[in-house]
Design brief:
Elements (H helix, E strand, L loop, with lengths): L1 H19 L8 E2 L3 E4 L4 E8 L3 E6 L4 E4 L2 E3 L2 E7 L8 E9 L5 E8 L5 E4 L3 E4 L9 E8 L3 E5 L4 E3 L13 E9 L8 E9 L7 E2 L1 E6 L10 H15 L17 E3 L15 E9 L17 E7 L7 E2 L12 E5 L3 E3 L12 E3 L22 E3 L30 H5 L4 E3 L6 E3 L14 H6 L21 E3 L4 E3 L4 H4 L9 H4 L23 H6 L14
Parallel strand pairs: 2-9, 10-17, 11-18, 20-21, 21-23, 22-24, 23-25, 25-26, 26-27, 27-29, 28-30
Antiparallel strand pairs: 1-3, 3-7, 4-6, 4-8, 5-7, 8-9, 10-12, 12-15, 13-16, 14-15, 16-18, 19-20
Length: 544
């Protein structure tokens, strides 16, 4: 009981003491009179001391105060938006006591954005090889200046991009796509990518991208092992429909022939190496893979059957031009528009087949001077589209040698054993060479050398054009006019199967002329009268 009375007395004394103290006055003011803010913006907390009602305001839209009014002391949040420019800006927050009209000012200073080009990752590592369409990567650049991309290596390129700065100099992220080529060397290589400001701004930060590409898989040159690695790599690059089983010995691979002692041209250094190889049915959008250069023992390479050939505009590339020992080469239905002049390195070529490609003109490299040993040239079926009437079609780049202004007479003067130009868009007249003094007539000596099998009427009257050609195919082009005498009386006309592979033309040329020869013979009776030693098939008039 006694303790309770003591506690009550103490509480009463405490209340009495409080009641006796004078009121504490709060001076109107703020905890800060200046705010310094970076370019990215942010929030600064400021305490307002007051007893009465107050209100806060600013004339800058990039400054926000919360709460903007109140009574008594409390803390306010002053929010500063991100800057828009590369120069500083300033503003002010005004706090007014509504009872006394006292004011307090808080100055706000914000930095502008420094000029910067920043990368999340300054280094990118890529493989030496990936399939076509997968050799790319992207880089995100954070910047507030427009820039150009400068790359110090040709194997790396960038696609089109746009630096969009709708909010002034506030940094934005720009995605840039890059594409790269296969690394064909056995060593790692690097490229530097510089981002250069277009307006020459002074940069606070300017990152450089480093691209590091891995070395290629090593191929031991001039070895059986190197050949096998090259074949697998070519197959991978061209995306062939079938593949070789690497667990099986190379001599058992389909469409591959290896050198052995029984073959003509064999030498000990060729033993077990690739003599012949085929690549069929593939899908590539690039020149021939670089690994072809390692097939240094091959005598013949056969490549045929690219997907959607008529849509493609491809180059042959230079890798295969290193194989100077090649004798036979076929690159058909690949999608070629032209053939590089480096093909002339293949001086030992005897057979060249470039059929079913997309040539608008005969490649300039195809001359007898460049290929002194060539005996067979096949250039048929180079049409992108089947067009019957060329005069009623406006499409460009249709292939078929459609842009040749006249028949490519140099091919006739090459004197090849085989020349195939069928199923193209060759136009105009077959050259007669009557006015060309460089083309000789048949002579008495020619007749004597043929054991008098040449008709006498050819001597000094008929031009000696392609005298050794055993196969000439020019059918289904858009040729017009007359058949020249050198063709009508050619010693090999009968074995050319002329009513199938020479005389037939089709459609109309660019001028609207119906294709065909005005003097096409009905049969070969006239011919066999001149060449009585030839055996005319019984009952065969030569008519179709």
């Amino acid at each position: 009981m006694k303790n309770a009375r003591v506690y009550i007395a103490m509480v009463a004394a405490a209340f009495a003491a409080v009641g006796c103290q004078p009121d504490v006055k709060v001076d109107f003011g703020t905890s800060a009179d200046k705010i310094e803010m970076g370019a990215v913006g942010g929030v600064e907390r400021v305490k307002i001391d007051a007893e009465e009602n107050w209100i806060a305001s600013t004339d800058k839209p990039w400054i926000t105060i919360s709460p903007a009014n109140g009574r008594g002391s409390r803390e306010c949040s002053i929010s500063i938006d991100s800057a828009l420019l590369d120069t500083p800006r300033s503003g002010e927050v005004l706090i007014e006591n509504l009872a006394t009209h006292q004011t307090k000012r808080i100055s706000v200073n914000q930095e502008g954005f420094a000029h910067t080009i920043e990368l999340e990752e300054p280094e990118v590592k890529i493989a030496n090889f990936k399939a076509y369409g997968q050799r790319n990567f992207s880089v995100v650049v954070t910047t507030n200046v427009d820039f150009d991309v400068e790359i110090d290596s040709k194997w790396l390129t960038n696609k089109k991009y746009e630096v969009d700065l709708p909010r002034g100099k506030r940094p934005r992220q720009v995605k840039i796509d890059f594409e790269w080529d296969i690394n064909t060397t056995a060593s790692e290589r690097t490229a530097s990518v510089n981002f250069v400001p277009k307006e020459g701004e002074v940069m606070a930060r300017q990152d450089v991208l480093k691209v590091v590409q891995a070395a290629s898989e090593p191929i031991v040159e001039n070895t059986r092992q190197g050949d096998s690695v090259a074949l697998i790599s070519i197959q991978r690059a061209m995306q062939t429909m079938s593949s070789w089983d690497t667990s099986v010995a190379m001599e058992n691979w389909n469409n591959v022939v290896l050198w052995d002692e029984s073959m003509n041209g064999y030498t000990p250094d060729k033993k077990g190496r690739v003599k012949y190889v085929e690549f069929l049915l593939f899908n590539t959008n690039e020149p021939l893979p670089y690994e072809f250069r390692y097939l240094t023992a091959a005598e013949e390479i056969y490549i045929f059957g690219n997907a959607n050939t008529f849509l493609k505009h491809l180059e042959l590339g230079e890798s295969i031009t290193e194989l100077t020992q090649l004798k036979r080469l076929t690159v058909g239905s690949y999608g070629l528009d032209d053939v590089d002049k480096s093909l002339a390195k293949l001086k030992n070529l005897e057979h060249l087949n470039l059929c079913a490609n997309n040539f608008n003109t005969v490649p300039d490299v195809l001359t007898k001077e460049n290929f002194p040993k060539l005996r067979t040239l096949i250039l048929n079926a180079n049409q992108r589209h089947a067009i019957y009437d060329l005069s009623n079609d406006t499409r460009q780049n249709i292939g078929g040698f459609s842009e040749e202004k006249e028949f490519p007479k140099d091919l006739l003067l090459w004197n090849l054993d085989t020349l195939v130009l069928s199923v193209n868009y060759l136009q105009g007249r077959l050259p007669s060479f009557d006015d060309d003094p460089s083309v000789p007539y048949y002579t008495d000596e020619d007749r004597r050398n043929s054991n008098d099998t040449l008709p006498e009427m050819l001597v000094n009257k008929v031009k000696k054009v392609s005298p050794n050609t055993k196969r000439l195919s020019i059918n289904h082009n858009r040729l017009v006019g007359t058949l020249p005498d050198w063709l009508l009386y050619h010693p090999s006309l009968d074995i050319w199967v002329p009513f199938s592979l020479v005389f037939p033309q089709e459609g109309k040329d660019r001028e609207g002329n119906s294709a065909g020869f005005s003097n096409e013979p009905v049969n070969l009776d006239y011919y066999y009268k001149l060449y009585p030693f030839k055996n005319q098939p019984t009952g065969d008039t030569g008519e179709e």
